[in-house]
Amino acid sequence: MARSRCVIDWIRRRQPRWTLSAVAILAAGGAAYPSAADAQVNMEALIGAALDQTSDFEVVDKPLAEAFLLVAEQTGIAISIAPGTLALLPEGAGTRMTARMRNVPLREGMDQLLEPLGLRYRIAGDGLRVEAGHALRRIGRRATWDELEAVRWLGEELQPSDAEQLDKLRRALEFKVGSSPDSQRAFTMLIEAMPKVGGETIAESLDAACGGLAWAWYPSSEKIVVLPATEHMKRVLRLAVTLTANHRALSEVLLDLAAQTGVTLRFDPDAIGSLPRETQRDFTVRLANVPLEQALEVISGTTGLAFKIETDAVRFFNPRQATVTERVAAVLVIPGRGEIPLYERDLPEDVRESLRALIERLAKAIPPPGDSETSGDD
After folding, report:
1. From residue 2, how far is each of 6, 63, 102, 103, 233 by CA, in Å?
2. Hey, what domains does the chain have and what are their CATH numbers?
3. Per residue in 338-358, pLDDT tens?
4. 342-358 burial by CB neighbour count: b if 16+ within 10 A, else e?
5. For residues 257 and 124, what is the distance between their CA atoms, to the nearest angstrom?
6. pLDDT of 139 higher than 60
7. Nearest by Cα to 52 from 29, 68, 20
């Protein structure tokens, strides 16, 4: 039997048509879903099951927002687009799509549909949320088609033994990590670090390796610029963001802000918990195409929280609280969205005791300074 295929056409205004032939998109039909009052875990399980169902689908020359609406109507799964996402695409909200598919699971189809544009989706609430992928967010402005091709390539699996892949990466990298950077030495440092830090894709490994070297990166034209993390943070603060929140939890709004820009957010103990309950749970803000730093200042002025720009993150704290030094027991990392510290005082007493015992055992296992297994006196 012939393999089912689809054609996805991205139409460029005043440019030749770029055609991607791929196994394509979509859909599950007619599944019944629980109400919003049901447990979220059940909703996620049902959506996950729907993503594995197959169906036929066709959309002809439609803007992305309309195309996603058609997908939602056919599948019964709500699809929303994160604020500011379409503005990062070469044709913005005018990016059009033609997609045809037969007998393909929605999960596989959505990946084929979104990855060429540097987009991704996740289960959020009672539907799917389409947002910019990590590499696309790093561009920080409307991308060119060449940059989208670089974003697509960065999503490929890292093959450390693939000489052709490494050579392509070498030619793409542009180092700005010092006044007179030694590109060959910097490249060697980066390539040696990438296989050690984990990460399935080139982008994930590049991200982790740069982090270990206090560097950062972003696609620019046909290059991948590598620069000090401090300089990248200055650049991130100038990125344009859009926030539209009506009576939402403040924590959700802040995580949306992180998702748009890729910035890491950190929170001091009780930074949000110390705010009035209505501020925590019923926050409204409307910002369109403003720099990230301005958005942070608006949130700060509205809530009373203060923020500090650090080397690789933005830290929120309540200036009315006395400074307290507390031990961080662990850090919950939400990929691409932020970090939440877990403090000892928030843990049950038995967990704190176990943690203290573990620290004592580790401390005893570390030899004193200058001590070694062998002595220099023979």
Report:
1. 12, 30, 11, 12, 50
2. 6-132 (3.55.50.30), 141-230 (no CATH), 238-324 (3.55.50.30)
3. 566 666 666 777 777 777 777
4. eeeeeeeeeeeeeeeee
5. 16
6. yes
7. 29
